[in-house]
Amino acid sequence: MTAKIIDGKKLAEKIRKEIKEKVKKLDVKPGLAFVLVGNNPASQLYVGNKDKAGKEAGFYIETHHLPENTDQLKLLNLVDKLNQDRKIHGMIIQLPLPKQIDEKLIIEAILPHKDADGFNPINVGNMLIGNNLIIPATPKGIMKLIESTGVNIEGKYAVVVGRSNIVGKPVSILLQQKNATVTMCHSRTKHLVQYTKQADILVVAVGKAKVIKADMVKKGAIVVDVGTNKVNGRLVGDVDFDNVKKVASYITPVPGGVGPMTIAMLLENTLECMDLIR
Ligand code: GUN
Questions:
Q1: 117 is an active site residue
Q2: What angle do CA 264, 67, 49 make, to 5 degrees?
Q3: Quick check: is 240 catalytic?
Q4: Ligand 1, residues at Cβ distance < 6 Å
Q5: Ligand 1, atom nearest to 93 Cα
Q6: Which of 117, 138, 142 to mutate to test the pocket of ligand 1 (most atoms within 8 A of CB)?
Q7: Cα(163)–Cα(205) distance, rounded to whole angstroms?
Q8: Which residues contact 155 (CB under 8 A, 6 or more apart)?
Q9: Helices marked H in 25-136 — which ranges?
Q10: Which residue is closest in CA terms to ligand 1's atom 9?
Q11: Could you give the CA distance from residue 171 to residue 163 in angstroms, rounded to a whole number?
């Protein structure tokens, strides 16, 4: 068996085109603000890509780049200013933030209806009880990728490896909402392979290059690789793609799988933020 590749780049392009057409018909441009603190190269790259995608879709974009030594109060003031700004419908505070800043406090300061990332505890709590308002972009993109296979999620056994607030936890909730039976695995899970080998749907978000090998994957599984690891200057996923594709029925590539979907979902979330205040 050779798995079909789930082409996230193509799907994301289609969604971005649809968003662009929608934006053309609006009388107000969707306003999205990015806040980047410090000089983390990966964060700079991510924000640069999101900024470009937003502009291409016809959004009003503001990028605020603050120095590494920015203090918490200064950042809180900026968040507050963006909360009040009527041109801005959604904002993204790029994570991680420097050590002197309490990430939780900053995320809580974002008005829930301007939280394009869906990271504010109000949005997370709503999702937990099935009231999906703003869903984090990466998990939302992962669900669209799985749904694009046409395979019915209901009743499937889904295993999520990784329990981050950004990916693992929310994607497990979304899979459960679609009636999958979900197991969450993490760094302290004993006998990981016992779980992964049973998974009809396997989502991997641990940030370690090629940890999921072919002998850990069930024949015919759908495998979603959220990893973005730099190895010898190359981007590599958490899944040993070349070998796992011989076992799986569908697999997302890195790059070109989840990453492009995250950006498209972020733009979609901004439109949803806009709807929440109308
Ligand atoms: N850092 C890594 N991924 C993300 C994301 O989706 N949003 C934000 N704000 N920061 C991140």
A1: yes
A2: 20
A3: no
A4: 92-95, 117, 137-138, 166
A5: 9
A6: 117
A7: 8
A8: 179, 180, 181
A9: 41-56, 72-84, 103-109, 121-128
A10: 94
A11: 9
Q: Which of 51, 115, 117, 200 is catalytic?
A: 117
The CATH number of 28-111 is which of 3.40.30.10, 3.40.50.10860, 2.40.128.120, 3.30.360.10? 3.40.50.10860
CATH 3.40.50.720 residue ranges for the chain? 136-258
Which part of the chain has CATH 3.40.50.10860? 28-111
On whether the CB atoms of residues 36 and 63 are closer than 8 A, the answer is yes
Q: How many residues does the chain have?
A: 278
Answer for the pair 260, 12: CB distance below 8 angstroms, yes or no: yes
CATH number given to 136-258: 3.40.50.720
Ligand 1 centroid – CA 95 distance (Å): 5
pLDDT in tens, 138-154: 999 999 999 999 999 99
Amino acid 278: pLDDT? 65
The Cα diameter of the chain in Å comes to 56
Confidence of residue 277 (pLDDT cuts 50, 70, 90): confident
